[in-house]
Amino acid sequence: MKEYARTERIGAELRRELAQIFRQDVRDPRLAGVTLQGVEVSRDLAHAKIYFTCFPLDEGSGEQEHLLNGRLAGFLRRRLARRAPLRMVPQLRFVHDTSIVQGERLSHLIEEAVASRDAEQERE
User: Fold this and answer.
1) Span 73-84, pLDDT tens digits
2) Residue-range domains of the chain with CATH
């Protein structure tokens, strides 16, 4: 149980530091709409999976994922090494988080179902 809490704390710290690095040091306009959603750190602290979304409505997410997992991952890792109080900075892997888009789609489907049920009840 203690190990699990440690990885969560480290993930939260990495997310905070990465968000600051994005605001202060990343100048690429293609990454302007990136928002970090969460960080999962492996138990051995060697790997970190960073979930991100893109706004508006995940446009260009594939290109952004490619950019983030390319040379920028090394740049971000070096910046983290300077800022984060860790002996070893994990390898970074960025993954596009589609949960917001899926939630919007489900919400829209629910609204349509309720509207069609209400229309059916009015006809009766």
Assistant:
1) 999 999 999 987
2) 2-97 (3.30.300.20)
